[in-house]
Amino acid sequence: MDTVPLPASPSLLLSSVGTPAAPLVIDVRRRAAFDEDPVLIAGATWRDPFAVGEWEKYLPRHRPVVLYCVHGHEVSRNASAALRTAGVDARYLEGGMEAWRALGAPTVLGRRHPAVPSEPGKPSVWVTRERPKIDRIACPWLVRRFIDPFAEFVFVAEPQVRAVAAQRGGIAFDIPGVDFTHRGERCSFDALVDDFGLEDKALARLARIVRGADTGRLELAPECAGLLAVSLGLGSLHRDDCALLEKAFLVYDALYATCRAQAAGKAEPHTWNTPS
User: Fold this and answer.
1) I need a surface site. Which of 50, 81, 105, 185 has the fewest CB within 10 A?
2) CATH architecture designation of domain 7-109
3) How many Å is the Cα radius of gyration of the chain?
4) Taking Cα atoms as reference points, which of 138, 212, 221 lies closest to residue 174?
5) What confidence score (pLDDT) does residue 1 get?
6) Of 3-12, 15-24, 62-71, which range is least confident?
7) Taking the CA of residue 68 as centre, how many other CA atoms within 13 Å lie in the half-sphere pointing to its CB?
């Protein structure tokens, strides 16, 4: 593979964030810069730019990578060149984090929880109740797409959630008394969006759909009843919770794509009228 650093367009990256087509995004700002400003591009994880050889072996070779530093200069360019030498399809983000912010593109707080972002070879672990329906599928989708792309999810009987999370050094969610759970009329998905600072119009729309379907308030959005029906149907088709999770991600990918189009005023109409 050619080792010459290649640029990636911020606007093109923005169009893919939160979708299954998104590249793996890696923040390679110097540690001091990241500690001073621990805000990441949504879906990114931080890695030491001077230790590429220690973490590149954990990167999937089938997925493109975009790296960014503060301004898109030598730090991200050198790291992308090192990855390309190792056989990774890596590019650097033109203009870096500053160009991303100038677009008003979504970011995520990188220090909301000590287990996030995860370390090389040590993904964050999220533990919740078995037999997920809506919130316990929507939350993993949000985590994987916007918070930690390497995250792992564990489903256990409710009395075991806290113990397994403690044993795995993980994060318990969607049970009473933990950080990421229902808060009044808002659900665990809302808690993650709020606490990780995910300001995105499309996510706000999706959060309302999840909230309505998960709490029985189907009037909150036209899509709520459909999400509830599809979620129950998927649960009846898949008895393995992890298999169910992977299948259900497509539902949330599709809903998020629709929400993005709606937020941009580009929703595709669909009508069919019987000729008179």
Assistant:
1) 185
2) 3-Layer(aba) Sandwich (3.40)
3) 19
4) 138
5) 59
6) 3-12
7) 28
